[in-house]
């Protein structure tokens, strides 16, 4: 496994988290980090794929399949959470964190809220790296995975 590819994902996720933090300063609300959660995985997958291509390797069918399915899941969840949570009021969990970290929450939220989410998503994204870098041909396990993901998306929707 090429660890530089994995660390490129962390860099991309950190930039995405920083962008979310800047938005929170403008809105005075960090609730949108929930909407960003699924997108962290999409950012990781696209970063991994770009790094692989930068090394001169082609993406496998499995990599493309993972990226398509992941993007559908991530965008659906992000849109739903954004629709549900967008507004002037901060989620009670984040309001409590804000209160406990006053008066410097605007600055500490970069690592308490956004940085933590990015690092957790990065750790979980290791499984994506394995799937995206695999050159093994698609098989029955992939078909079962696609069926599981589709049924999960239908259930969630």
Number of helices in the DSSP assignment: 7
Apparent shape:
globular
Number of strands: 0
Helix share of residues? Answer: over 70%
* First-last Cα distance: 35 Å
The low-confidence runs, each spanning 5 or more residues with pLDDT under 50, are none
Order of helices and strands: HHHHHHH
What value does the average pLDDT take?
Answer: 93
Oligomer: single chain
Q: What is the radius of gyration computed over CA atoms, rounded to a whole number of angstroms?
A: 17 Å
What proportion of the residues form beta strands (DSSP E)? Answer: under 5%
Please summarize the sheet with the most strands. none
Structural class: mainly alpha
Tell me what the structure shows.
The structure is a single chain. The protein has helices spanning 3-27, 33-54, 61-85, 92-100, 105-124, 126-133, 140-156. By secondary structure, it is mainly alpha-helical. The longest helix has 25 residues, at 3-27. The radius of gyration is 17 Å and the shape is globular. The termini are far apart.
Annotation keywords:
157 residues; mainly alpha; 0% strand; globular
